[in-house]
Amino acid sequence: MEQKAGNTERLILEAAEKLFMEKGYNGTKTMDIAKNAGVNHAMIHYYFRTKENLFSRIFEQKAAQLLGFFVEAFNEDYPFFEKLKTGIETHFDFLSQTPELPLFVLNEIIKDKNRRNYIFNKIRPAGEEILKRMTKAIAEEVCKGTIRPTKAGDLLMNIASLNVFAFVALQVLFSSDEDRQQEGYIKFLEERRKNNVELIINGLKIKN
Amino acid sequence: MEQKAGNTERLILEAAEKLFMEKGYNGTKTMDIAKNAGVNHAMIHYYFRTKENLFSRIFEQKAAQLLGFFVEAFNEDYPFFEKLKTGIETHFDFLSQTPELPLFVLNEIIKDKNRRNYIFNKIRPAGEEILKRMTKAIAEEVCKGTIRPTKAGDLLMNIASLNVFAFVALQVLFSSDEDRQQEGYIKFLEERRKNNVELIINGLKIKN
DNA sequence: TACTGTATTAACAATACTGTTAAACATAAA
DNA sequence: TTTATGTTTAACAGTATTGTTAATACAGTA
């Protein structure tokens, strides 16, 4: 044999990633993964033993990616407004790489309590750290009188809401690959990116 | 026989609604529906012929509910800020009745293009009407100098983002029924409700 | 009472899906 | 060339799941 040397495993992982993200755990059949990967379906069990094993590999990697990135994007020291803008945009641009990611992760967390706990334990430390820093940064700005009092948790949640929902809507509005060639697709994204930054920043400022 | 006279059909629909909303189409098994409804599983095929038929009934009703309500909540004539506040709150309160609704509908739309088209055709007229009215209301306020120029679509999208995402997060944070007895659950909702109104309104206002 | 249409049940059929196994095959090292 | 090791295949087993059917019950009605 061509001694695919890890090739088969990679093919399976790639096909599995694509299908799981698209159809979720229950919607994805192992034989479909095999067919997409171009390998005999027994290979899935040879390399990963069970569907659940294979799924976990994908899920944990994806969840870490999603959450890790969120933390990263807002983890720097703030010269407040510019960094906030950069953080939102960086986060937005990351999501535009893999539009299905947030909905996939959220769905599977909701449908399986174990996964929820797994995720929570993973991000708790980083999450608390970032909240602490952000709280401090906000407090400083409030002192200066540039923004109104805001909880760091609320701010993060607002950003996540706007950014994530943009990509959920994107999938509804432009579901097929052809749709995504359209000009409207680009326009929609640009508009939302700008809107989200403006709303968050304008929303923080104190009115006259 | 007790001749349940339409009772069985109702029992099936109720059980199906609960399970489909919780587990989605693929996660729900017809025998589970039958068991939950307390009827023989052949009844499902007797009344609805196929799983897909039964699902469509539920889905279409739910989608109409979700979208219809959104339209309704923002469909009145605006004395701007108060009505905007009321609209957001009404929408939020509606979602709090059935927290799983938006994610359920979004998921099934994304996973099935036919459903997407069905939905689009259903809401297009109402959607266009509400956009037109809102555009007019916004233009008037902009003239008065009370708010900054904003597209109606962006505004609606912002509201939907914040409100819907609150309930997606809610399901992640408080997944079980016991969780929802907690005090934190109520607090979270109150906080988000207030936050969303404030962010939208403050975000519209012009800053010095 | 017998007839008709609807409702219900249990048993069955057909298929889909996950997981297992034994044997074949390829390759590198001895 | 032989052997050891890891990889691949086809065939199969077991179960889950959807869907079908024939027999039966019952209510209303002619």
Plain-language structure description:
The structure is a homodimer of 208-residue chains. Chain A has two domains: 1-49, Arc Repressor Mutant, subunit A (Orthogonal Bundle); 56-204, Tetracycline Repressor, domain 2, CATH 1.10.357.10. Chain A has nine helices and no strands. Chain A has helices spanning 7-27, 30-37, 42-48, 51-73, 80-97, 101-111, 113-144, 152-173, 183-204. In chain A, helix 8 (152-173) packs antiparallel against helix 9 (183-204). Chain A binds chain B through residues 22-24, 26-27, 103, 106-107, 109-111, 113, 116, 148, 154, 157-158, 160-162, 164-166, 168-169, 171-172, 175-176, 191-192, 195, 198-200, 202-203, 205-208, and chain B through 23-24, 26-27, 103, 106-107, 109-111, 113, 116, 148, 154, 157-158, 160-162, 164-166, 168-169, 171-172, 175-176, 191-192, 195, 198-200, 202-203, 205-208. The structure holds a DNA duplex (30 and 30 nucleotides).
Layout of strands and helices, then pairs:
The structure is a homodimer of 208-residue chains.
Chain A: H1 7-27, H2 30-37, H3 42-48, H4 51-73, H5 80-97, H6 101-111, H7 113-144, H8 152-173, H9 183-204
The first copy, chain A, binds a DNA duplex (30 and 30 nucleotides) through residues 1-5, 8, 29-31, 39-46, 49-51.
Number of helices of chain A: 9
CATH topology-level name of the largest domain in chain A: Tetracycline Repressor, domain 2
CATH class of the largest domain in chain A: Mainly Alpha
Helix fraction bin of chain A = over 70%
Multimeric status of the protein:
homodimer
